[in-house]
Write a structure and sequence with these properties.
Layout (H helix, E strand, L loop, with lengths): L3 E5 L3 H13 L3 E5 L2 H11 L3 E5 L7 H9 L8 E6 L4 H9 L4 E4 L4 H24 L2 E4 L2 E4 L4 E4 L2 E3 L3 H12 L5 E2 H9 L7 H15 L9 E4 L3 E4 L6
Parallel strand pairs: 1-2, 1-3, 3-4, 4-5
Antiparallel strand pairs: 6-7, 7-8, 8-9, 10-12, 11-12
Helix pairs in contact: 2-3, 6-8
Keywords: DNA-binding, Phosphoprotein, Transcription, Transcription regulation, Two-component regulatory system
GO biological process, one term: regulation of DNA-templated transcription
Protein name: Stage 0 sporulation protein A homolog
Amino acid sequence: MPHKILVVDDEKSIQKLISYNLLREGYEVLVAGDGVKAIEIARDNKPDLIVLDIMLPGKDGFEVCKQLKYDTETKHISIIMLSAKDGEIDKVVGLEIGADDYMTKPFSPRELLARIKVNLRNKKANNTAKSAIKELVFDHIRILADSYEIYVDNTRIELPPKEFELLFLLASYPGRVFTRSVLLEKIWGESNLSETRTLDVHIRYIRQKIEKEPANPEYILTVRGVGYKFNDMKLQ
């Protein structure tokens, strides 16, 4: 079965450009020209990945991403956001609400295809890893792999998929130090150290949700000058 890709852009020329290149690679392609239609198609068809423009009529790309990532039926769909703006704040906002990747216009169709392949490959690898480990328990934290759920003191905490995958990876190897480049490669499919702000933002948000004192973390520890590790003293 070919992977199913939803292309969301109100510019017909961009829709056609992306769709043409995807079809040449053997993907099944769906299209939407506004945010409301994008959510409807995503919920009805469950695509493997969405190429999502930010500037859309009806609902903008940020709102579409937020609604899909916080819906249990669609939260596992990978999202690559497109923007005519190259400001860092837009990228950070997109990644914070759960987007898997971010590209600015104009873009290279070849690079977009490469990023789509990386995201789909990483998604498959993450699913394979989680199939081997069903549950992780540390003191007052419980992580359920299949359902992307986390409980802190028996209270369910919502994590966007990228935050969950980052936490799951670290917690799966307590005590192991992951460099920033390795974490970027495994979770985002790139080891470019210029993207470390993206990683650090996600770590900060995870700490705010699982740590009693985020400024003095007990679980996700910083290894200065190297990266991060999960505290192996917390393993039950």
